[in-house]
Amino acid sequence: MMPILLITFSRTLILISLILVVRSPLLTETLFIQPVLMFPYLRNKKIASILLALDTKIELNNRINAELEAMVKTLYDYWFVQFDFPFDFAQGKPFDFASCPEQCRRKGKPDANGKPYKSFGGKMVYNPTLKREIPAGWSAKPLSSITNVSNDSLNPADTPDKAFKYFSIPVFDETNIYGIEQGRTIGSNKFKVKETDLLVSKLNPWFNRVIYAMDEEDQICSTEFVVWRSPSTGINNFLYHIATSPQFIVHCTQSATGTSNSHKRVNPNVMMRFLQPFNREIVELFGQIVEHVLKQVIVNQRANTELTSLRDWLLPMLVNG
C-alpha cells in the first residue's frame, strides 16, 4: 500500500508543479473541486507545454494589438484633433504620399516637403457649429452625411440549412467575433453585413461595441447594431476611429433612453447627428494609411479567439483525463 500512496503523492506534486508553470486560475480551481485523476507524467508535460505556448501566443498578440492601436490612435489625434496632418505648403495642398517611398507611405510620415499643418501656420477658421477652430476648407458634418445606414435585411429561416456568420451581442461580448449558426436556429430578420460595413451597437452604448467587418460571405448581424455602410474603405477606416472615440461614446450615452439602466438604447437617427470636422481628401488619405494596421488587429483578435477556445478545451484534459 505504501508504494502506491507514494506514487500517487508524487504524481499529485507533478500536477501541482505543472499548474504553477501554466499559472491558470481555472486549472487551480478545478484541481480542488474535482477528483484528481492523474495522467502519465510525459503526457501531462506535453499538454502543459502546449498550454504555455498558447498563453504565450495570446499574450503576444495582445501586446502587438495594443501597440498597433496606440500607433493608429496617435496618428488620428495628430491629424484630426491637433490638425497637424501633413501639408505641402509649397504646393498649397495636402502632402502627396504617392511621391514618397513605400516605407514613408505605410507609416504615414511625409518627407521634408510635408509639414504639420497647424504647427506650421496653416490657416484655421472658427466654426460656429463646432464652436472651435478647424482648418480652412474643412466643414462640420454629421455622420449621416459621411456614411449611409443600411437596413438591408434577410430572414435566415428562409435558408434553414445555410451556415451564417452571425454577429450577436452575447457572442461578440464573449469572443469578439461572430458565431456560426444555421438559418433554422436564428429566429428573426437580421441585417446583411458587407466588407465596408461598421457595426455599431445601439444597446448600452457605453460598452462601445464596434465591429469592423472583413471580406467574408454570409455575414449577418443582430438588429441591435446600426450598420454604417461607407462609400469607400478609406472612409470606413476613418469612421472606425470616430465610433471608438470618447466623444462619440459620450454623445451616444447621453442620448440613450430606456426603462432600465441595464437596457438603454440610442436612437440611430440621434447617433448619426454626431458632428465631426471633415475633409474628404484628408480622411481618404488617413484611411488608406491605417487600413493594413486595422485589418491586422482584427486578424490577431480572431486568432486569439481560436487559441483561447483551444486552450479551454485542453485545460480539463490535464486534470480529468
Automatic annotation (TrEMBL):
One BP annotation, GO: DNA restriction-modification system
The record's GO molecular-function terms, alphabetically, read:
DNA binding
The answer to keyword Calcium applying to this record is: no
Q: Which InterPro entries match?
A: Restrct_endonuc_typeI_TRD_sf (IPR044946), Type-I_RS_S_subunit (IPR052021)
| Keywords (A to Z) from UniProt | DNA-binding, Restriction system
Q: What is this protein called?
A: Type I restriction enzyme, S subunit
